[in-house]
Amino acid sequence: MKTILYARVATLDQTAVRQADEARASGFAIDEVVWDEGLSSLRVPLAERPQGRRLFDLLRPGDTLVVRWLDRLGRNDAEVTDAIREFMRRGVIVRTVIKALAFDGATTDPTQQAVRDALITFLAATAQAQAEAAKEAQRAGIERAKASAANKYRGRKPSYSRAQFETVRDLLAQGTGVGPVAAATGLSRQTVYRMRDDEARAEAALAEWGM
Question: Residue 140: in which H helix or E strand, if any?
Fold first, then answer.
């Protein structure tokens, strides 16, 4: 039985190695890492991504699929739900690094099945809502950058990378406190507060500097 990590690498600042290290630090014994990279991986269903297709071929009954979070499995709640149920139908256990959730199709108790399926639906919808919020913040940042393009002074260069920004946004969305977020990302509490209080401005600063 194998444990395979599926990573979606959407930006240059993200790496499959980073996601694999995070999974191993959370206690997962990863046997293999499969990843799709590039923004194109955000625009197509999992089964149509180059490595997504390979993932379905690799996994066997009894294997475990690890993802950082459920949003890696689809573009919206319907795709995420369908992907999880398809893996469970094939006898694959789906586990997440964030929140340490596990979805196992071997459950036969009707009550446990109902609770599991309701949880999948709820979490998939939450993942979609977070993704939409992130897209909106990105659009606002791009528009802000365009509006200030004529101004040669771009302000101070951000003290954080896009990867750190995305990690801060994800952790805050999960309800993690500012202190733990700062410790996890190596940023100051003041920087995390600024990101929390004006996410669009933090995104715009990255866009203005081409980061």
Answer: helix 110-147
